């Protein structure tokens, strides 16, 4: 983590062969990247130690994935200021604070799930996002077979955005590009 620049770091204190406390200390000596501690240690003393040692947030297991994602987004927004509230992809503009989308200046009406899907793809622009990752991001329930729910939401999003923003990589997933 000290070699590359990251928007935020999620750090588990209980790593095999490493002390999360030592990793946090080294990160703080070299970087100002926001750190969220994610751990099974949920005592008040552990939380205080984590925050006093330089962590920006602390989340104890078990946690809900949507809460973790919201906390990471908040860390990134706070560290990057206003610039992080907008994601520009060609003529497409996502405002992460108001959760609105415009295309060439015209508002695009999206459902909450469509917005979440678009935001996930935008945050991973240029990288393949698997159907499983999308499903886990959009839905709370865990199923062995998630039928065609992901495909339906991707199709609806494509219809509303027009153009060729979302590409399907057969057997791999989807990616968003300019």
Task: Characterise this structure.
- Strands 6-7-8-9 form a four-stranded antiparallel beta sheet, covered by helices on one side.
- The model has no long low-confidence stretch (mean pLDDT 84).
- The chain has 178 residues and is α+β, with helices and mostly antiparallel strands.
- It folds into two domains: 9-63, 3-Layer(aba) Sandwich (Rossmann fold); 83-176, Arc Repressor Mutant, subunit A (Orthogonal Bundle), CATH 1.10.10.10.
- The two termini are 28 Å apart.
- Helices cover 39% and strands 22% of the residues.
- It has helices at 20-30, 44-52, 65-80, 112-123, 131-138, 149-161, and strands at residues 9-11, 14-15, 18-19, 35-39, 57-60, 86-89, 92-95, 100-103, 106-108, 166-169, 173-176.
- The protein is built from six helices and eleven strands.
């Amino acid at each position: 983590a000290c070699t590359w620049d990251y928007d935020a770091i999620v750090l588990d204190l209980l790593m095999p062969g490493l002390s999360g406390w030592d990793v946090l200390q080294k990160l703080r000596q070299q970087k100002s990247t926001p750190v969220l501690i994610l751990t099974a240690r949920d005592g008040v003393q552990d939380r205080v130690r984590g925050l006093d040692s330089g962590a920006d947030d602390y989340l104890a297991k078990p946690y809900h994935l949507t809460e973790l994602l919201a906390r990471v987004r908040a860390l990134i927004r706070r560290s990057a200021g206003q610039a992080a509230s907008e994601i520009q992809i060609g003529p497409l503009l996502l405002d992460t604070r108001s959760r609105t989308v415009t295309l060439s200046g015209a508002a695009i009406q999206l459902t909450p799930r469509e917005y979440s899907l678009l935001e996930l793809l935008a945050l991973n622009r240029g990288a393949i996002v698997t159907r499983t990752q999308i499903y886990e991001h959009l839905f709370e329930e865990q199923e062995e077979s998630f039928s065609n729910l992901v495909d339906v939401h991707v199709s609806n999003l494509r219809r509303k955005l027009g153009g060729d923003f979302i590409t399907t990589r057969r057997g791999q997933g989807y990616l968003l590009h300019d």
